[in-house]
Here is the input.
Amino acid sequence: MATRPRKTTETVTPAPELASNAEPNIEQFESSLKELEAVVARMEQGEQPLAESLRDFERGVQLTRQCQGMLQSAQQRVDVLTREGKLESFSTPDDAS
Here is the structure.
């Protein structure tokens, strides 16, 4: 029995690219992550036509790369701040045990 492609009212809008020197934006990260989760959920259902699955896969790769870039940028900021401020790990009395 052949299945007809589902019509979706959802449109995929490309997320803005993150410049390498741009400050990480938590709202943008959360939005991209939420969209990525929705893409994965649709693909896991396995009911999409091949063309739609390929579009979702491509979008998922874009979103994954975007999120990874934002995380790397945030990590670099933390590294710079801890180096400049000479922050070091500290121990609490509970750590002595």
